[in-house]
Amino acid sequence: RLFCGVDCVANAEMDGKIVDGWFREKTVLWPGQALSLEVTEVLYQGKSAFQDVLVFRSVSHGVVLVLDGVIQVTERDEFAYQEMITHLAMFAHERPERVLVVGGGDGGVLREVLRHECVKEAYLCEIDEDVVTVSKKFLPGLAASYSDPRVSVKIMDGAKFMDEHAAYFDVIITDSSDPVGPADVLFRPPYFEKMNNALRDGGVICSQGECIWLHLDLIRPMMTACRNIFPHVAYAFTTIPTYPSGQIGFVLCAKSSTTRFEAPLRSPSATMQSALQYYNPDVH
């Protein structure tokens, strides 16, 4: 593990992730297509206990966080994802006081959760501490949320944490990477059952739901499994340029059959809305 600057570009090139000053995202999850970003400086390159971690500064998208070769966050467009995965669920609940974020070590979803003044306890459960560490250093616009006194950070398996907190949370948001490596279990039915068990009455969940242009073979069985667990299930999406095909979806599930995600129970205050860049009641 090392923190580094421009001199590390050559090292990253040897790993095949950055070639001739360009990072190329190419994986088996979206065969036949790739996204490239021009790199000005490699800020961090290392391997955690779970995955490869790369942070670089790009020409057009600011600082970029990459896990196992896949872009997780860019400063330019992160708000489109963070706001939607958070507020679609948060505004579907009348008064969320206890919120759990599983994954999301960059701190972006936590930042959005804390915009809701009704939140009294916000837990972030991230299995890979290195993601939290590099985000605090290189992505302060997202990770500033860690200093909020309402926040508790748990470096552990999110499923185990939920087992220890039955019927405790109003909202659970799973901000996972793609279903390979440590995130694979977060797309399976037993994980959704654990989320259901960890919700209080009236609780809701929102999980990263992959791309409808690329992953219908994964989305269909996941939605079917959720409908066997929760009385109300919906699917939503946002547009974000640096995610595959410029789009990513969200699986929304409610513990109550009366919840309707298309009809939010609250809306942002004028002050909150002025701080948002993507989400608003019409977009919802």
Task: Write a brief structural summary.
This protein is of the alpha/beta class. It has helices spanning 8-14, 78-90, 108-113, 129-138, 140-143, 158-163, 189-198, 216-227, 270-275, and strands at 2-3, 18-19, 22-25, 35-47, 52-58, 63-67, 70-74, 98-103, 121-125, 151-154, 169-175, 199-208, 232-239, 247-254. The longest helix is centred in the first third of the chain and has 13 residues, at 78-90.
Task: Offer a few descriptive terms.
single chain, disordered N terminus, alpha/beta, 9 helices, 284 residues, seven-stranded mixed sheet, 14 strands, globular, 26% helix
Describe this structure as you would to a colleague.
- The chain is built from nine helices and 14 strands.
- The protein has 284 residues and is α/β, with parallel strands linked by helices.
- The strands form two sheets. Strands 1, 2, 3, 4, 5, 6 and 7 form a seven-stranded antiparallel beta sheet that branches. The chain has a seven-stranded mixed beta sheet with strand order 10-9-8-11-12-14-13.
